[in-house]
Design goal:
By secondary structure, the chain is α/β, with parallel strands linked by helices. Helix content is about 40%, strand content about 15%. The relative contact order is 0.13.
Length: about 260
């Protein structure tokens, strides 16, 4: 199946078996947990709108997904208002939105500086990527989410509630993200709102956080996906959840 670039995006508009597929928008979907969740939803035949900052890597990830489902992929940064408009347009062209996943994140340096050494511009970038952009993208897509009774899933961190040396910017941004997700839940109760701490994972971002350490003992992001799928399937009350509290036996998971 050929992919083509239109208006900065990689589009694939094939309709699968004449069925109406649920649609998910996943930011930061070219690697790590975002890519693993996209692959799992593709196996469930969700239509996917995905983005990432790296064009080539996103194109490769999108191409792999098209063997299972239809994909609209848009390279760009969620901090760019024009890019967010592209994503919103793609969602509306798909006919609605059932799931919005805020996965794209900015770490704030590798190794991460202590707060006393944190440049103002770096702090602002972390907050813009991890909090400001998700809030603005969510605001733009509230009509679609309300119409479907959809779900917003924000990837959080234990650094949102614990204090680690060097994690001041990232932790503050995730704490703020948790807070706005909880406030959205109060203001828009017809939508499910989840902030999920997935736990440590063997990802590029985690390696960047610990550049001199061997992180091969951390679980792969694919092992966390069944936990997220369980959350989406069960639709418990809106709130903040730890992946460990939702863990399932991955050997027993059957993809529908």
């Amino acid at each position: 199946m050929d992919l083509k670039f239109e208006h900065g995006g990689i589009t694939n508009t094939q309709i699968t078996k004449g069925t109406l597929m649920p649609t998910a928008l996943i930011t930061g979907a070219s690697a790590g947990l975002g890519q693993a969740l996209a692959e799992a939803l593709a196996r469930r035949h969700w239509h996917l709108v995905v983005d990432a900052r790296g064009r080539d890597r996103l194109a490769a990830a999108a191409a792999a997904l098209t063997s299972e489902t239809t994909v609209d992929a848009y390279p760009g940064s969620v901090t760019d208002p024009r890019h967010r408009t592209e994503l919103v347009t793609a969602v509306r062209r798909a006919g609605g939105l059932d799931l919005l996943v805020h996965n794209a994140s900015e770490l704030g340096g590798s190794p991460q500086p202590g707060l006393a050494d944190l440049e103002a511009a770096t702090f602002a970038q972390v907050l813009d990527t991890n909090v400001g952009a998700p809030v603005q993208l969510t605001r733009q897509l509230l009509p679609e989410l309300a119409s479907s009774g959809g779900t917003v899933l924000a990837i959080s961190s234990d650094a949102a509630v614990e204090h680690y040396e060097g994690w001041g910017a990232y932790g503050a941004s995730k704490a703020a993200l948790d807070h706005v997700i909880g406030t959205f839940a109060v203001e828009h109760p017809s939508i499910r709102w989840y902030a999920v701490d997935p736990g440590d994972m063997r990802t590029q971002m985690h390696q960047a956080a610990f550049p001199d350490e061997d992180i091969s003992d951390r679980p792969l992001p694919e092992t966390v996906v069944p936990t997220l799928l369980r959350l989406l399937d069960l639709r418990p009350p809106s709130g903040r959840y730890r992946g460990a509290d939702l863990a399932v036996d991955t050997t027993a998971v059957v993809h529908s």
